[in-house]
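If you are new to this repository, start here. Below is one unmodified record pulled from the training split, so you can see the exact layout before writing a loader.
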Amino acid sequence: MTLAAFPAGVSLVASGAATPACSVSNDQLSLWLDTSDDWIRSRTGIGARRIAGPGESLTALAAAAGRQALERAGWDPASVDLVLLATSTPDDLFGSAPQVQALVGATGAVAFDLTAACSGFLFGLVTASQYLRCGAAQRVLLIGADQLSRWLDWQDRSTCVLFGDGAGALALEACPAIEDGLLGFRLASDGRRSDCLRLPQRDGRQELQPGISPQEGGFSPLQMNGQEVYKFAVREVPAVLKALLAETGTEAAAIDWLLLHQANQRILDAVAERLGLPAERVLSNLAAYGNTSAATIPLMLHEAVSDGRVRPGQLIASSGFGAGLSWGAALMRWRGPATA
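And here is the target side for that same chain:
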């Protein structure tokens, strides 16, 4: 492929989303857990979460979100050059992106998975932008999707009340540098703290012969040190956002919307306070969906675009954070369309 003249800009064209039909309320969880709606809401801000049922696989949800983003963009799926699926819960460990590529009809696109847990969508956005900036791709379908319900211990109230399933998508297009919609980004990782939030492999062994014991496949339920993850988020997220604003010469007051990974309402409130942003500029849908990992940012973005809150030309400061530990921030300008 001949590379186009660069550096090119990145245009945020259209969004899409898909969630399972089944919504499980806090009251329903209390039927088998020692918990209550008040206990969960007061600590997290979550009131319900969507749980995938029969026929609602990770691949199906991702494809549905992707198709909606393509329809809103008005793109022929065959014009897409790259399908990038940010997920930590693929249906196939060899990768689910190629199946999504086929389902959305992006016959000319290369497709691959990117694994970065709750930071996945933001890391995917930065990865996609590199393809667009250098001319290796003109159109990218970026999807964040996770189905963590299959990896939870549904008797552990410290984790199972937090997570849900869903998918969100973003259609991205190369544009002239002067129209660039990705104004800056910063990414970070610290593997020394990876045990704070993990989904580890089981250490089962199958003895074939003495001295020959290959490991059996499979994973343990999600494990999290909630207090440490909270402290990490309220410390690192404001810091990385402030550094990005300083780097791009942007005043916090210029931000139209703060779009954070939807993990805990207390984290969202704390970050907004440290940036000096009023609550009405913080996007949150935690109450209805909980933490959908790589899907939270695009799912929230799609909701706010669809109801008219996010409008063309508005400035969005976003941050993803979670397992790895990993975190980062991006400063984006929405292009549109503003409504369906």
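Two things worth knowing about this chain: The mean pLDDT is 95. The chain has ten helices and 13 strands.
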